[in-house]
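pasting for ref
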Amino acid sequence: MFDSPLLFPVRLKNKKIFVLDESLLPFRQVYIEIDSLDKALWVLGSMKTRALGQVLLFFYSCALFGDYFSIDKIVEEFKKRRPTFDFFLLGKILKERLNSCNSIKDVVNNFISNFDSLRRKRVKKLADILPELAKILTICNVNGELIYLYEELKKIGKEALFYVSETRPYLQGSRLTFWELKKNDIPAYLICDNQAAILMKEGSINCVIVGADRANKKGDIINKIGTYALARLAKYFNIPFYALTQYHQDTDINKIKIEERDFKEVYMFLDKDYNMEAIYPSFDITPGEFVTQCIEL
């Protein structure tokens, strides 16, 4: 039985939100207790949680603090901290479902339960189209879904080997994806971000799988910085590039504000602050022409 705390990194219990501090993994597994919207916003802004974690944090914040703040207000505050992510859409989904249910907590719990079921269905679709031996390159972290994918591949008699980009500067690939794969005894190699091209050229990789924070109906996606480079490389070497997506919008993705993080985060793992100038757009846009297929939720 495969498992990872990253499958559900944020939980609600006894009127408190518990957030897995992803910045401490893999060395320590610590949960941050949240009992106020201000603390939830601090956790979001300081990268203690990301990807699915920020979705769960938003919904649980609405459930827990909805008596004090409107959904629109919570959307506004979350958007300030992580502008690239579509919290407006999450708020819209929540308000629509509230029209047929009186309890915001019931809406949130039903959404999360259904979301996990949809994740499992999504990896089934992906497993069916992957080769018999899938040599998968991935970037960043998709909250345990690669574990679901490996489980599904095994069920249908296929094998998988993962190549995990370290994912600078927060090293989510090293600290999260690679850690959870090895924790479950799933075959994986950790690679530096700049090794992808040579591995593709040598035939070590035969597919690329990434997540996506945003996607539109043309198949354009926004994901962790470095995704665009992998997509261009995959196109050059004729390697399928799959994006795990959800909630495609009819929008011009190029007009979406890309989050610019503090440039000091680029060298935060050095021993001291050298006060060097740096650039850190934390996401990039990959046009649909470089995406072989979006595997939708």
